Amino acid sequence: MRMAFFHDNVMLSGEQGEQYSIIFPYSLWKERYLPCFEEISVSTRVKPMSSVPEDKRGGFVKSSGERVVMRPVTAYRSMADALFHRGAIRAQVRDILEDADCAVIRLPSMLGFFACQEALRLKKPYAVELVASGFGSLWYVGKPGGKALAPFFWRQAKKYTSAADYVLYVTDGYLQRLYPSRGHTAAISDVCLDTPAPQVLKKRLARIGEHFANHTPLTFGLIGSLNVRYKGQKTAMKALSLLKEQLPGFRLKLLGPGNPAHFQSVAERLGIASQVEFCGTLPAGDAVAAWLDSLDVFLLPSDQEALPRALIEAMSRGCPAVGSAVGGVPELLEERYLHRRRDAKGLARCLERLLSDETRMRRAAEHNFQKAQSFSRETLDGARLEFYQAFARYAGGGILE
Q1: How many domains does one find in the chain?
Q2: How far is 102 from 283, CA to CA, in rounded Å?
Q3: How far apart are CA 344 and CA 353, in angstroms?
Q4: What is the distance of C-alpha 127 from the center of its chain?
Q5: CB atoms < 10 A from the CB of 370, how many?
Q6: Same domain for 215 and 325?
Q7: What is the pLDDT of residue 144?
Q8: Pairwise CA distance, residues 110 & 7, whole Å
Q9: Do residues 287 and 393 both lie within one domain?
Q10: How far apart are CA 159 and CA 336, in angstroms?
């Protein structure tokens, strides 16, 4: 059974034809798809490794490997190509699909829309991995081009998700309501974490007890690229500036890549510049876990999210958290710790409620830690394997399970 995989992700091509990716390491193909399919052809955008400065290659790991054939769609390099070279893109996608028995298509993505269209024309079974809202992802990026494309992405994602044979949603209900499907569906997060040890929660509760016993200054944290505005950094700063008299000596730590100049100026205008720390980037794993352990409260005041990995990782460290009521966030946090999008006063009220009582802080930590257990690698890997085994059987025999 040969499967073709499509997504817009940009890979880097090495001198020997090997390819590298940030989000698609070879281990992902090996663990997630190769147990169900004999061979995978991976079709994304690609550019030469030599065209990217060495200091911009951080995080890229080898994606190509045994039983994984890289077949990049070279006609699609930018969004403009989707308009001016759509014939060439369709032809390349069609050739790839004709050599495959089925397809797995990650949406929302422009290349994914082409793949869905051609799969339907060729009557090839296809499964959709719906990992975000196409509308929200573009509408809230703050660029006019994104806003113009948002309705198109919403219609296309809705159309092709509805027509898909199998659909894997990363949320429990949010994406399902926006993009319903007539096919076989499953709710399986793409965030997989190693099950945290009980000592993690024990240390968190001890930290909470120490704060209330000694009135130690609180540390808040937020994860998100500084090159975008929709992660809510400004909302967080405004909320904390409203509470600075009640929270003497607080710190706000921002983890993520990008130029901090804009947010430094925001902090200066709000009078909290000395209390905001830009932490840059850290390697995934233990370093990020240690950073999360240094926080008292995690903040996620985003304009748009699907199912945020950063929040789930914070919850797995027992962090009390407050977030905006967008996307799949209400599936994770208690309602009392949710606020409206871009509502700094609402965020401030949530923090006042959380921080007013040690019992509330402890209960929030325990709730978040327990909720994060449902994202354990063991649980999700097993469910995902069953989903793709069923899809492979369906693609081979045409029987919907």
Answers
A1: 2
A2: 35
A3: 14
A4: 19
A5: 12
A6: yes
A7: 60
A8: 8
A9: no
A10: 35
Q: Are residues 226 and 367 in the same domain?
A: yes
Task: Assign 26 a pLDDT band (cuts: 50, 70, 90).
Answer: very high
Model pLDDT for residues 129-145, shown as the tens digit of each residue: 999 887 776 666 656 66
218 and 312 together in one domain: yes
Distances (CA, A) of 161 to 42, 127, 326, 384: 20, 9, 21, 18
Residue 313 has pLDDT above 60, yes or no: yes
pLDDT band at 60 (very low <50, low <70, confident <90, very high): confident
Cα separation, 259 vs 161, in Å, equals 37
* Same-domain pairing of 104 and 204: no
Chain centre distance of CA 122: 31
Q: Domain with 170 in it: what CATH number?
A: 3.40.50.2000
User: In the chain, what percentage of residues exceed pLDDT 90?
Assistant: 77
Asked if the model's pLDDT at residue 176 lies above 70, the reply is yes
Q: With contact defined as beta carbons under 8 Å apart, do 251 and 219 qualify?
A: yes
Q: Mark out the alpha helices in 179-219 (DSSP H runs).
A: 198-214
Q: Which domain holds residue 149?
A: 2-192+376-397
- Predicted local confidence at residue 346, as pLDDT: 98
Handedness of CA 275, 281, 285, 287 (dihedral sign): negative
The predicted model gives 318-346 an average pLDDT of 96
Q: Which residues contact 83 (CB under 8 A, 6 or more apart)?
A: none
Indicate the helix (H) or strand (E) that contains 352.
Answer: helix 344-355
Q: How many CA atoms lie within 13 A of 355 on its CB side?
A: 22
Among candidate residues 280, 282, 291, the one with its CA nearest the CA of residue 319? 291
| Cα–Cα dist 217/237, whole Å | 16
Cα angle for residues 203, 207, 213 (degrees, 5° grid): 140
DSSP 240-269: HHHTTTTSTT-EEEEESSS--HHHHHHHHH
**Per-residue pLDDT for 356 more than 80?**
yes
| Judgement on whether residues 162 and 81 belong to the same structural domain of the protein | yes
Structure confidence at residue 137 (pLDDT): 65
Same structural domain, 324 and 384: no
